[in-house]
Amino acid sequence: MMYKKLIYVIVCSGFLGACQQQESNISSSNIVTTTQESTSLASKSVLQKGEHYYFIQGKYDKIPIVNKKYPVSKDYNPGEDAVAKAALLKLQEAMRKEGFAIASGYSGFRDYNLQSYFYNKYVETDGKEKADTYSARPGYSEHQLGLVFDLWEDEQGTLLEEPVASKWLAEHAHRYGFIVRYTPGKEYSTGYQAESWHIRYIGQEAEEIYRSKLSLEEYFGVEGGNYRD
Ligand SMILES: [Zn+2]
């Protein structure tokens, strides 16, 4: 990998377009090829069941997985993750410097009961089928990990959808350790409609995930999509 990386750095300097291509090739080769190196990564990418949630041992960190197939326990109540919050503040600052309207308010950690409240409200308004496309059932929300933030355009809580800011976020979030979790065209994998505002803290591996152009589920080979029932 080190060798490949070096080659990559040399090849890339000065050729941004080629760079993107090269990088995505390397990332996908980690997952699907049969070299010794990728085999070792694949063997580490086994979904494990922890006390409160499922996780993957990523390249650098343990990566909790919460989606419509893999819930988090009802009593898991970690609050906001301090490392993720510090990264969020840096990202928000960077976005403001770019001239984007980014509120200091956001929607972050939600415990099981708060998620129940929201989900039930959406079901009342839109019906269960529709609500399931944009709101997680209690116990299935990534927000319960304390690693997720919905960015706001204003202090009234308007979710970040402005196209230019959203594009910048999609292309730069990894520099701060985040991925935009639900991207267009990946609904079959993530189980949710695209959300330009919902960022998930990953840490160092965010960059590789971003470059791979895969969903979190695809990148780690984890089952996603809809609920089992
Ligand atoms: Zn969200």
In the predicted model, the low-confidence regions spanning at least 5 consecutive residues are 1-43
CATH architecture of the domain at 64-220: 2-Layer Sandwich
- Order of strands in the sheet with the most strands? 4-5-7-6
Q: Report the span from N to C terminus.
A: 41 Å
Percent of residues in beta strands: 5-15%
Tertiary shape: globular
| Computed Rg | 18 Å
Structural class: alpha+beta
Q: Provide the succession of SSEs.
A: HHHEEEHEHHEHEHEHH
Tell me the name of the CATH class of the domain at 64-220.
Alpha Beta
Q: Number of helix segments?
A: 10
Q: Overview of this structure, please?
A:
This protein has ten helices and seven strands. It is an alpha+beta fold and 229 residues long. Strands 4-5-7-6 form a four-stranded antiparallel sheet. Strands 1-2-3 form a three-stranded antiparallel sheet, with no helix packed on it. The longest helix is centred in the first third of the chain and has 17 residues, at 16-32. The chain is globular. Zinc ion (ZN) binds next to strand 5.
List the SSEs and their pairings.
Elements: H1 2-12, H2 16-32, H3 36-44, E1 48-49, E2 54-57, E3 62-65, H4 82-97, E4 106-107, H5 112-126, H6 128-134, E5 148-151, H7 163-172, E6 178-182, H8 187-190, E7 195-201, H9 206-212, H10 216-220
Antiparallel strand pairs: 1-2, 2-3, 4-5, 5-7, 6-7
Keywords:
single chain; 229 residues; alpha+beta; binds zinc ion; 4-stranded antiparallel beta sheet; 7 strands; 10 helices; Muramoyl-pentapeptide Carboxypeptidase, domain 2; 3-stranded antiparallel beta sheet; globular
